Amino acid sequence: MDLLNELRYFALLDAIAVIYLIGAWMVLGYIIENPPKGRISTSVLVADYRREWMVHMITRKPRIFDATILSTLREGTSFLASACLIAIGGGLAAISNAERLSGVARDLALDTPTVIWEVKILVALFFVTNAFLRFIWSNRLFGYCGVVMASTSNEDTDPTALPRARKAGDLNITAARAFNAGLRGIYFALGALGWLFGPEGLLIATTLTVIILLRREFWSSSREILMRDETL
């Protein structure tokens, strides 16, 4: 009953904006990972290079280069996971001091109940928490990839070399997908903060987030570079 009483502070436009935010996050993630054949996303294009990397890794002696790249990828996931954890702590601290936010709102002649601030911050924390879990899983998958790489023979005549290299490639791609999903979570967490300026702010922030991600995946200069004809 208390929950229903608290929901009365939110308008229909608030519900529409939140549904739009979550729907955009889910649909965009699917489109990026499963793009139309006529317009491949940057993430999918890079996945092909990851497969080739693992194939070339078979005969590379020593594999210091491959180990360095993999270590760099893991460091990136660790850094962002740590940043998300700090953001989660900050968000929870803000919720515990939501009365102060309400006090600031009252000073600005905005009569905003505490529950509104709490819910809006929780929505942003949802995306940050999802990103944190994605980065943690990505880090672990890159670790699995390193183990499979280490078990791959340097001799291309070994019948297990190519299958294991392909396994390492698939693990690397899966880890990259989790990493990219984590990055999208951070983007949408920032977009969710637009709700602090009302449902209109959330709608605008979500739309800007979608446009930015679509551009970087389907119309960026980096994608054009990856699409260049290598036979020239």
Count of domains:
1
Radius of gyration: 22 Å
Distance between the termini: 69 Å
What is the N-to-C succession of helices and strands?
HHHHHHHHH
Instruction: Report the principal-axis shape.
Output: elongated
Strand runs, count:
0
Percentage of helical residues? over 70%
**Portion in beta strands:** under 5%
Short description:
This protein is an all-alpha fold. It contains nine helices and no strands. It has one domain.
Q: Which characteristics define this entry?
A:
0% strand; mainly alpha; 232 residues; single chain
List the helices and strands and how they pair.
Elements lengths: L1 H6 L4 H22 L8 H16 L6 H33 L1 H10 L6 H37 L10 H32 L6 H20 L2 H6 L6
Structural commentary:
- It is a single chain.
- The protein is mainly α and 232 residues long.
- It has one domain (63-225).
- It has nine helices and no strands.
- It is elongated and about 70 Å long.
- The N and C termini lie far apart (69 Å).
- The mean pLDDT is 90.
